[in-house]
Write a structure and sequence with these properties.
Rossmann fold, Dihydrodipicolinate Reductase, domain 2, 2 domains, 13 strands, 20% strand
């Protein structure tokens, strides 16, 4: 299939190119990057040696319409502007936030610009692979939203869903390529810092909407993100009070059953903790669970690669589904730890 990538100069766009270059069914026919049009791809992504002498193109809707599948990796608010100009039958995976939220009020509270509507939410392990496979346009989840939703989804019937507390650390690629003083090496190295402090991170309503699909009661999340001095990876810790008696053995069984058919999400053996280095460069998610008996709270740890399961890897997983392929096609690589 002829595939296009719009917004390929960013970190997620570069990871898309890396993964797609080895996909047995997808052939990259069009690669665009607005402000970097005309530049060599390897000038921005020097590790992508498969693309030697190839340049980023301008964003051209006539070329987009010649593709059979399109990945959009643009900043939030930009996808919606482009969608209205291209073939309505073109299969699209949007890595931005433009079509993730069902609630218009949540979009207006956490984002800027006009609400564009919503597409099916592309978290196959929670929404359902068969449901996504019926669609031609998919809203790829956010990185934090992926890690936190995967951690909580199996256990919604056993915890207080209005008492979710999540703290998650992410590598600097999660903030994009734009030049910011807070992201330069001298500021980031040897330092951890919270940001979007006080429940204002834009992935909060996305997580709540995702989990509301499963929960019997309203979902309320207090979420604090942390900037970690690493390029990529997310480690999320989520807690909530248990609302009924259950053993750790019972909890583990629930997680194992929930993810037994997943090619990517795994509950680790007792005593083994998720590590970002163990999922680096993959579409995998690692989970561990425990009960804090002192406070009667369930504690869950989840590690993903923010550019993998949190972005490009999951986008290809969704693309495989809407194109009728096995969802792990082109995504069976091991971590590079």
């Amino acid at each position: 299939m002829d595939v296009g990538v719009v917004g390929a100069s960013g970190y997620a766009g570069g990871e898309l190119l890396r993964l797609l270059s080895n996909h047995p069914k997808f052939a990259i026919s069009y690669i665009s990057a607005g402000s970097n049009a005309g530049e060599l791809i390897t000038a921005i992504h020097p590790h992508l040696t498969h693309f030697k002498d190839r340049k980023f193109e301008v964003t051209d809707t006539s070329k987009i319409d010649k593709c059979e599948l399109l990945f959009i990796a643009l900043p939030h608010g930009e996808s919606a502007k482009l969608i209205s100009q291209i073939d309505p039958n073109l299969k699209i995976i949007d890595l931005g936030a433009d079509f993730r939220l069902v609630n218009k009020g949540s979009w207006e509270k956490y984002y800027s610009g006009e609400y564009a509507g919503n597409w099916i939410y592309g978290l196959p392990e929670v929404v359902g692979s068969s449901q996504i496979a019926k669609e031609i346009r998919v809203a790829n989840p956010g990185c934090y939203a992926t890690a936190i939703s995967l951690a909580i989804a199996p256990i919604v019937d056993f915890i207080e869903m209005q008492d979710l507390v999540a703290v998650a650390a992410s590598g600097t690629t999660g903030a994009g390529r734009s030049a910011k003083i807070s992201l330069i090496g001298s500021e980031v190295m040897n330092s951890l810092s919270s940001y979007k402090f006080g429940g204002v991170h834009q992935h909060t309503p996305e997580i709540e909407e995702c989990l509301n699909r499963l929960a019997k009661s309203e979902v309320k999340l207090s979420f604090t993100p942390i900037l970690a001095p690493i390029p990529r990876g997310i480690l999320a810790t989520i807690t909530s009070k248990l609302d009924q008696p259950i053993s750790i053995t019972g909890i583990r069984e629930i997680f194992e059953i929930f993810y037994r058919d997943s090619a990517f999400v795994s509950l680790l053996p007792t005593g083994q903790m998720p590590m970002t280095s163990s999922v680096l460069g993959t579409n995998n998610a690692q989970i561990q669970v425990a009960i804090d008996e002192h406070t009667n709270r369930l504690v869950i740890s989840c590690a993903i690669d923010n550019l993998g399961k949190g972005a490009a890897g999951q986008a290809i997983q969704n693309a495989n589904l809407i194109c009728g392929f096995e969802q792990d096609l082109g995504l069976r690589n091991l971590a590079v730890r």
